Amino acid sequence: MIGKYFPAFIVCLWAVFALFGSFMGLSPDAIDLSKILHGPDMHSLLGYDDLGRPILDRLIMGAQTSFIVALWVTLISLCIGTFIGAASAYFGGWLDLFVVRIIDVFLAVPGILLAIAFAGIMGPGIENVVIALSIVGWVGFARLARAQVMALKHRDHVQAAVSLGTSSLVIIRRHLLPLISAPLIVEATFSIAGVVIAEAGLSFLGLGVQPPAASWGSMIRDGTAYMLVAPHMVISPGVAMILIVLSVNLLGDRLRDVLDVRGRKR
Prior knowledge:
74% of the residues lie in helices and 0% in strands. It is mostly helical. It has a single domain (67-257), classed as MetI-like (MetI-like fold, Orthogonal Bundle). It starts with a helix and ends with a helix.
């Protein structure tokens, strides 16, 4: 029973920390030189970093950073990718050919490398991280939306709407998008997990949020120089990121099973 609800508990805890962390009276930037690299104690259950800052407080604020980036990138990518993919599949012709070629170009290069390139061009900062990850994140949603619409646009109810003179945008919005929403929602859950890792990677390289703002990636980067004397600096954000990514993926798998009507019938 505990294992069944553990992923949901972890994700809810992540959301609570992200939404209400600023109101918890934390001191993520409080420097105490007497506690540099100290281990856990009664005041900080996860110890202190190389500047004497409480790791638990910074971990909670890092949760806020990853949650904001994951939420915005997924929403932007979902909206843009779904619109492009659905329009491409429905109208076909040169538009579909052009979109497919653009998607092929993006897929030819690993997404994280493109995100690093875009973030390097635009400069560090959470807004630029969101933009960079959204530029490469829409491709997966566009491919999925295109494939789903290609399979649905010849259905009888769609052809009936066309015969009645319904506009193309109304057909896409009212007759196609509701039918492809389930796989898109599942894809969004997996996208969230990927964005968490990507944001941490960009912050690790110094292209994400800048000091003194907390990020799990920058916390791991700062702790790599002290792994032999203070491994808790790396273990804490690393374990937190693993738990979030694993929990989101598990919830995505369960959501896919729930929304799979044909699988339930079998």
